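Q: How would the structure tokens look for this protein?
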Amino acid sequence: MKSLSRVVWSEGMYLGPHHFQTQSRYFEDSIHFAVEQCWFEPWGVVSCKLDDLAIQNGRVALIGAHGIFEDGLVFDMPASDHLPASRDIRDQFSPLSQEMLVMLA
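A: Here is the predicted structure in token form.
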């Protein structure tokens, strides 16, 4: 459960690391709460680009992708995060197939 209880700062109070952790958690939870109010499901893949040449050669390779995981963690490949290694798909799909379903996980 998210906590939307903010830290009440007062002059002369003892400051411990847990105060800053609680303040940080409050800001993160507040942002998450606001985003949830904007969309029904505030997470998912925003964009994903696959390498066409790799697919023609029987591999799935990402060129780039960005989005938000269900827990609120954002990803931006390759700008901020590493791209995963390409995967060989020749065993799973016939070369004569016109389309294929690829699940991203």
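The chain has two helices and five strands.

The chain has a mean pLDDT of 82.

Upvote if useful.
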